[in-house]
C-alpha cells in the first residue's frame, strides 16, 4: 500500500543502561510495602503474610458486616466540588488536635491484640506515628502495657471494667507514663457477634489445633515470630485466656452510665475523648458531662450491625456540639480523600484502624509508615485538586454527600 516503515537497528548498551532497574528483593519489608500504591494494595499483601484468622480479625466486622459495607459505601457517595485557578503549589496539611499540632488530621486508632498482626505490634505502630507526627492511641486491650511505650503524642484508650478500682489504677498508670489524652470507648457494653472470629476459632493465645498447624505450614515466618517472642496476651488484663467475646463479656461493665463518665472526668484531668457516639443527642450528653472531644463511631462495624453510618451522622453531630468539643470520625477511612471528605463534613480529624493494621501485617513498622505516607500523599493531592491549601479550608462548599 506504499506505507513506509521505520528502519530497525540494534540498540547500543549506552541507550539500554538507563532503562535497567535492579529492585530490592521482595522479602525485605521496606521493598515489599514500598510497591503498594494504595491501602488496598497493603491489604492484599497483608492477606498473604498472616494466617487467615489473624487477617479476618482485622478485616471482618459483626454479624453480616452490613455496617462495614455501608461505611465504605458512604464514602462512595461523597462528591467533591473543586475550585480552579487557585495557588495550590505548597499545601499545608497540619492541624491542631486537643491543643497540640499534628502533621495531618489523622489519629491512629486503638486496636486490640496488635502483636498478633506483627510481632513488633504497638512498638512498630507508635514509632511510625511519632515519626509521622500524628497521635497514636494505645488500647486497654493492647499487647503491651502503658509503661512499655514512649515518645510521640500518645493517647490512651479505656474500656470501663467491672472493677472500677482496676480501671482507675490503669488511668493513673497511663498518666504517670506520659499519655496526654484519655479516650473512653462507650459502644461495647457486651461483645459484638464477630462471626469470622467464631468460625476461625480465634482464641487468646491462639490454640495449636489441626487448623493452626496447617497455618504454620503456610505462614512459617509468622508462627516463628509468635513462638520466639514474649507470649501473646492482653498486657493490662490479669486473665486473658479463652475466646475474645467471652473475655469482653467477663471484664467489661454493661451497667456503665453517664455518671461513670462524670466520675472519669473527675479522675482524669487531661483531655478526655468519648468514642462510640452514634447520635447528636448522645454527643451533647457526653460533652455536657465534660468530654473535650467525641468520636462518631460504630466501632468499625464490629459491635452492632446495621448501626448508624458514622460519616452520615457526622454533620448532625458537628452541628449539635458546635465549638464546645472537637469532633472526630472513624469507620471505612482508607484514603486521604476519605480524610478530606470527613473534615469537609465537620470532623476535626479521622481515626484510622484497619488502614494501618493492613500495613502492620504487610511489613511491620515499614508497613505502617507506608500507610501513613499513602494517606498523606492522597490528602495533599486531593486538597490541591480541590483548589485548597490546607484542611481548614474544607467545608460544605467543597464536600457534600450525594
Automatic annotation (TrEMBL):
State the UniProt keywords alphabetically: Flavoprotein, FMN, Oxidoreductase
Keyword Flavoprotein assigned: yes
InterPro entries linked to this entry:
Aldolase_TIM (IPR013785), Alpha-hydoxy_acid_DH_FMN (IPR012133), FMN-dep_DH (IPR000262), FMN_HAD (IPR037396), FMN_hydac_DH_AS (IPR008259)
**Which SUPFAM superfamilies does UniProt cross-reference here?**
FMN-linked oxidoreductases
Q: Does the keyword Oxidoreductase apply?
A: yes
Signal peptide span: none
Q: Where is the FMN hydroxy acid dehydrogenase domain?
A: 31-402
Which Pfam families does the protein's record reference?
FMN_dh (PF01070)
Q: Which cofactor does it need?
A: FMN
UniProt lists the family membership as follows: Belongs to the FMN-dependent alpha-hydroxy acid dehydrogenase family.
**Protein's name according to its UniProt entry:** Alpha-hydroxy-acid oxidizing enzyme
